[in-house]
Automatic annotation (TrEMBL):
This is DUF2029 domain-containing protein. The lineage of its organism: Bacteria, Pseudomonadati, Pseudomonadota, Alphaproteobacteria, Hyphomicrobiales. The chain crosses the membrane at residues 12-33, 93-113, 120-139, 168-190, 196-215, 257-276, 282-301, 348-370, 382-401, 407-426. It comes from Tardiphaga robiniae. Keywords: Membrane, Transmembrane, Transmembrane helix. The keyword Membrane applies. The keyword Transmembrane applies. It comes from the Bacteria.
């Protein structure tokens, strides 16, 4: 018994040291990228921060950002630490806080599902160090970790058979991209028999968070037209997003927007109906549907940015930690995400095609997986090796050759290899259909949530 206790203590110590090392490494990477400035940072983020710093609370009466009021409050709070770093560093610190929060929530999701501390620690470390997470906040200073944090809290609540509409409403109030979880929330409302009146929480939360800026004198019309103004900022079917619109370059903008909205609406309703009618139970299935919602919405919608798959990239890490059969999800998503980011960061737009093809495979796999009851996994080692080597070759080609619009046989070869081996990885991760196993710690059938 003493020997067993020593082994357990040694294992806990090893896990703790690994987690501490990952946390420190994450902070180091963010520190090294703190002064990296994109054009968006120079034109928007830094001026917004300076305005908040100079005007203080009195500046709330003006629309000094093109985001919702919630982000203005965060800038005002951050400005209180002025002098501890450069303006851009302090702005990026907002993302760092919520990225850390995302890592904690994903770890808690994994822990509550299977009570395995090692898996929860892996989930935390993988989110905190994920390449797209580093890219989004540390390199670009973007705020996608904020709405993603509240999205994950909503998912975690539903997984524990609690009403998660309020955190979902906060996510939508932070950024419109919070609506990507909408089909999942609708399905859970139907599944758990949550009263329709709870939908009023979405506009109510937005209105409540807007009270300080309205009191400060900002016109109501300006407060409630933020999302409409954002929608009119760009007139392109895809803003480097690796989605279906990468393949529709010849479709006119005026035609593509309504078609994309209709496709997303139909896809979202179908997903909600599937969740509501499915007999499958357990936290793994709930998280799987949430990931499907976060993937399919930005995949079908037009006018999406490269970073709008952020929530799926983070949530899928938790799913893989619950069942290693889903390991292709976060791995391929990270590769696709970085390939997409290179379009803005380095103007290497040729990475969008393989990224979109890989995301297409993931979307199809999600739909097929949701339509079947099966579990178990196996590792297609040869396929993983092929995917890793072909992906490395593609990144090397894009970075070293600095491929913009130029297409070559080498590019086509690497693109084909990446997509082909990604398909092998996804296909190899599926086993013969067997009855779904219960997950340790899964709750039994639950009563309606009112």
């Amino acid at each position: 018994m003493q020997m067993l206790a020593r082994r357990l203590d040694s294992r806990r110590l090893s896990v703790s040291l690994i987690v501490i090392g990952c946390v420190l490494l994450g902070f180091l990477l963010r520190f090294l990228a703190r002064e990296h400035a994109t054009t968006d940072a120079v034109q928007y983020l830094i001026p917004w921060y300076i305005f908040a710093r100079d005007r203080g609370i009195g500046g709330l009466g003006e629309a000094f950002t093109n985001y919702t009021p919630f982000y203005s409050y965060l800038l005002l709070i951050t400005a209180q630490f002025n002098g501890l770093g450069q303006p851009l560093t302090l702005v990026k610190a907002i993302s760092f806080v919520f990225e850390f929060g995302c890592a904690i929530v994903v770890a808690l999701i994994v822990w509550s599902a299977n009570k395995a501390p090692s898996r929860a620690c892996v989930a935390f470390c993988c989110v905190w160090l994920a390449p797209t997470v580093i890219f989004n906040g540390a390199v670009w200073g973007q705020a996608d970790s904020i709405w993603t944090f509240f999205t994950l809290v909503s998912i975690a609540a539903f997984m524990q058979h609690r009403n998660g509409i309020l955190p979902f409403a906060v996510a939508v109030a932070v950024k419109a991209q919070g609506v990507f979880l909408g089909p999942f929330v609708l399905g859970m409302m139907l599944r758990d028999k949550i009263h329709w009146a709870w939908l009023a929480a979405v506009p109510a939360v937005y209105a409540a968070l807007a009270v300080p800026v309205v009191v400060a004198g900002r016109p109501i019309a300006s407060v409630f037209s933020v999302y409409m103004e954002q929608a009119e900022t760009f007139h392109r079917l895809t803003m480097n997003a690796a989605n279906i619109w990468v393949f529709a370059g010849s479709v006119p903008y005026q035609m593509g927007v309504p078609i994309g909205l209709a496709l997303a609406a139909l896809g979202g309703l179908a997903l909600a109906a599937l969740l509501a009618r499915s007999k499958r139970e357990g936290p793994e299935f709930i998280l799987l549907v949430a990931c499907a919602s976060l993937m399919i919405m930005p995949y079908l919608l037009p006018k999406m940015h490269d970073r709008y798959f952020f929530a799926f990239e983070v949530a899928s890490i938790g799913l893989a930690c619950l069942n290693a059969r889903y390991l292709p999800f976060p791995v391929i998503a990270q590769v696709s995400g970085v390939l997409s980011y290179l379009g803005f960061e380095r103007n290497i737009v040729m990475g969008l095609l393989p990224a979109a093809l890989c995301n297409t495979l993931l979307a199809i796999y999600l739909v097929l997986d949701l339509s079947r009851d099966e579990s178990g996994f196996r590792f297609p080692k040869l396929a993983w090796l092929g995917y890793a080597s072909s992906t490395a070759g593609l990144f090397a080609y894009l970075l070293l050759a600095d491929a913009g619009e130029n297409m070559s046989l080498t590019y086509l070869l690497f693109t084909g290899l990446v997509v082909g081996t990604a398909l092998m990885v996804i296909k190899g991760s599926r086993c013969a259909s067997v009855p779904e196993r219960s997950v340790a710690g899964a709750a039994p059938a639950h009563p309606p949530v009112n």
